[in-house]
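2024-03-11 09:14:02 DEBUG pipeline.ingest accepted 1 chain
2024-03-11 09:14:02 DEBUG pipeline.ingest length=198
2024-03-11 09:14:03 DEBUG pipeline.predict start
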Amino acid sequence: MTRLVVGLGNPGPEYEWTRHNVGFHVVDRLSHEEGVIFEPARRLPAYLGPAHFTCARSKRFDALYVKPLTFMNLSGVAVTALARHLQLEPGSILVVYDDMDLDLGRLRIRAFGGPGTHNGMRSIVASLGTDRFPRVRVGIGPARTDAARHVLERFSTAEMQDAEISVAEAADAIRAWLGGEDLEGVMTRFHSRWNPGT
């Protein structure tokens, strides 16, 4: 059965490597490593729903890498339209996104759970009508002042190495899941590597 890997972010070059866009960078890495490119929604065979995303079909797995183009607060529009088109259960949809409750360089995988304060996840949970889908949370570090400003800031030069490593390791974990490893196994195998001492 096809799986979706949805990276959350905001479209446009002005948002490149802002904290809110690490989800985009994870799916970009996955597609780049396979040599596949993101194409408009209308290129998806037989798809007639809202064209609010781009997607790349994996060469290695029965999977689509997806980037919603609705801006963060309406991410659920694209995810729900694709899930209906492909007749997917929520457990086949993995969402990767930024989390300012995690320090930069830390990641968490969960099989389900509430959206917390993340507007993109709130939109997806509300649109799907469930929170029973897997997710990878990529730490971006806590807000020093205003949270809305924090997530739209670019990583500093000093932070970029950790940000790029986090993106690469999130991609590794997602690849393991797509390759057939159960989510609990992925969590067990990768958790200590990402989060030493916890």
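2024-03-11 09:14:41 DEBUG pipeline.report The first helix runs from residue 22 to 34.
2024-03-11 09:14:41 DEBUG pipeline.predict end
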